[in-house]
Each structure stands twice: as structure tokens, then as C-alpha cells.
Amino acid sequence: MAITEDPNKLFVPTYARSGAPMVKGKGTLLSDANGREYLDFGSGIAVTALGHSHPAIVEALREQGSSLVHASNLYHMEPQIEFARLLIDNSFGSKVFLCNSGTEANEAAIKFARKWATKKNGEKYNILSFTDAFHGRTYGALSATPQKNFYRGFEPMVPGFYAAPFNDLEAAQKVLDEREWAAIFVEPLQGEGGINEATAAFLKFLRDYAAKHSIALVFDEIQCGVGRTGALWCYEHFDVVPDMMTLAKPVGGGLPLGAVVCTDEIASCIAPGDHGTTFGGNPLACALGVIVLSTVAEKSFLDDVITKGKYLKQKLERCCETEPRVEAVPGMGLMLGVRMKEDPAKLIQACRDKGLLVIKAGHNTIRFMPPLTVENEEIDRAVEIFASVLAETGAG
Ligand SMILES: Cc1ncc(COP(=O)(O)O)c(C=O)c1O
Question: Which amino acid residue places its CA nearest to atom 4 of ligand 1?
Fold first, then answer.
């Protein structure tokens, strides 16, 4: 179909989009309608973990698509069962709730935590999150996202949500000591807010505090989970286990799929009718979820992510070493950032013009999150493009 009109005329302007529509993907490469090819180092915002058009994904789409695409959550469906079994066998959790997106996973986790906590003590409904967190766009998840630029104009937020400074034990303790809590939400590695790693000491403090005060510790691994950091779950790096974990983005292999993984104790407070979704855990999405999880959970696959992550990080560090505009190259595995001393929007556009897709995080970071299947040679090309953009836009 030849598109002749400006597509921006058709949509509520929630995104600032430009350029020809994207029409095709293969591995790390994405092509637009003009036949231009891009190295996709954003992975559709951390979604396409196995790259575009992975043969096993294409096959699962065909197979599940020709047997069952929807039956509803009034019935069991085989791909859901297989997917839930994989989640449970490969994590701390013993129960799973399936939905369609990250924000829905966090909404469910907020509800589950409140039901669990208020059952013990009617006052325990407050939810704590941290500065620069991003948990989603619907009202509960948005209320747990203490960044003005996301909620300005949409107030009032949901009551009972508070924030404390990320990675600051003393400040967090002070806020926590002020009231009763249902849950603490934290991203072990913040994505949207910049590539900000939690410290092990901070997560351990939250774990201990939550256990002592019967608060649900919720790890939002929507962006940093599913192998992205070189461990299946980011929490494995820190030796800290949550009571609930929320997942989405890569877990559905490109289809909308989200999950809450939790303990039996939390799940036991939820009864039929307490929560639900028409599409959540759709069998087609779950069939892809089975491919993603069973592939990524392999030790050799995860080892490879660590090796390629180190390779990319070293190359980025080397290319930024003499660049005065770069502050740091933070991140783990293949969730890396280049933190600038200025707004990187122009650099990101210049990369795109040269065939490299990267994404802004926070106000000053460029995210590098290629598919976990990226090749070293593609990393070389991407860093070459980035280096040339730095050179061409530098002060000198
Ligand atoms: C850590 C985190 N939580 C939640 C969300 C919201 O996910 P979704 O856009 O699928 O609603 C995102 C999306 O960027 C995220 O990065």
C-alpha cells in the first residue's frame, strides 16, 4: 500500500513520529517502506529479544494461529499452562497471573498487594516507589511513577502512593517509617528513567525491611527481565528475591503479553472475580512466550548475552573515552546506556539518519538494547555509526 498522506494527521499525538513506516524485520535489521535498513538497537523498546522474524516465532505463529487464537479466560488453554509452568519452574514464584502489557501487570500487582496486606491490617494500603521509576501509564501504575513529565495534566493521582529517593537507604527508611505499606515497587535496573542500577545494598535493605514489616516487595522486571542483563531475571545479580515480579515487553516475542509472578501466600488472598482480563494470556501470545522463555532460559544463551554485553560495553566505553559530552556508560548485559551531559535527542536522530536505531532514556541517556541474538559484527557496525555521529557533532 502506497502511503501518500502524513500519518501524523490520523493519530492522537501521543508520539513524535517521523519518517517512512517500518515494514519488515529480520534479526537485528528493520527496514522501512523506502527500503532503508536500520540496525535496531532499541528492539522495539526492549521487546524483540530474539530479533525480528525469528524462525521459531514465525513457526509458532503459524501453528498456534491455525489451531486457536482465542477461547477466553473462562477456560484453560494449553499455551497458557505451558507458559505458566515455565515461569514457575524458572523463578522464585509459585503462581502466575497473565495480562497484556507492563502497565496491566503492575496494576494487578498493586491490587494483589493491597488485598494481601489489608487482609492483615486495614491500614496497610500504601505503595512506595522510587525517583526516576517508570511503572506504566494507567492510573495505578502512573501513580507509582513519580516523574512529573508523565503525570502532569492528569492529576489527581490515586491516593496512597509515595516516593523515596532511589538507592538512598536512609531516606527510604525515613519515608517507610512514616506509615503502613502494602508494597514497595522497584526496578532492579531502571530503564525509562535512565539506565540506573540499584545497588545490592539498597535491594537487600528493601528486602529486609519488607520482610520485617509484612510488605510485598515487587520487582518490576518489565524492561530488565527475561535475559536482558545476562541473567534470566535481573534480581539474580543481587541475590535478593521479591514476593512479586512483573513482566511484559520481551516475554511475548512481540505480541502483547504481561505477567505477575508471585508467592502462594499472595495468590491465596485472591478469589475468582477479584481481577481479570478478556485477552490476558492470549494463547497465541503465550505460544510465543513459551518460545522466548525456553530459549532465553538456556545457560548457553545467557552466557552469550553476558559475552556480547561486555563486548558492546567495552566498545562504547572506548569510543566515549575522549568524548567530553559523555558522563558514563552504565548498565548490565545488553541493557546499556551512554549518559550524556546534554539532551541526546539530536544525536539519536543523527544515528537514525545513518541507519542506527537507539532510544532516549531519562533526560540525558541513550539506550543501547539490541536483540539478545545480536552478532558481534552488528555491534561493530553500530558503534562505528555512533562514533561517527559523535565525531561529526562534537565541538571540535
Ligand atoms: C519498567 C517498566 N515498567 C512498566 C512499563 C510499562 O509497560 P507497557 O508499556 O507494556 O504498559 C515499562 C515500559 O516501558 C517499563 O519499562
Answer: 135
Is the C-beta atom of 192 inside 6 A of ligand 1? yes
51-71 pLDDT, tens digit per residue, is 999 999 999 999 999 999 999
> In angstroms, what is the span from residue 255 Cα to ligand 1's centroid?
14
Which of 141, 164, 165, 169 has its CA nearest to residue 154? 141
Among protein residues, the one whose CA lies closest to atom 9 of ligand 1: 102
CATH topology of domain 56-296: Aspartate Aminotransferase; domain 2 (3.40.640)
CA distances from 154 to 13, 109, 137, 188, 260 (A): 16, 22, 11, 27, 26
Where does the chain hold its CATH 3.40.640.10 domain(s)?
56-296
Superfamily of domain 7-54+299-393: Aspartate Aminotransferase, domain 1 (3.90.1150.10)
Ligand 1 pocket member 133 (CB < 6 A): no
pTM for the predicted model, two decimal places: 0.98
Cα of 46 vs centre of ligand 1, distance in Å, is 10
- Positions annotated as catalytic residues are 134, 220, 249
b/e per residue 45-74 (b: at least 16 CB within 10 A): ebbbbbbbebeebeebbeebeeeeeeeebe
Residue range(s) of every CATH 3.90.1150.10 domain in the chain = 7-54+299-393
Give the number of the atom of ligand 1 that is nearest the alpha carbon of residue 106. 4
Q: What value does the mean pLDDT take over residues 362-387?
A: 98
Burial (CB count within 10 angstroms: exposed 0-12, middle 13-18, buried 19+), residue 34? exposed
Q: What is the pLDDT of residues 222-249, one digit of tens each?
A: 999 999 999 999 999 999 999 999 999 9
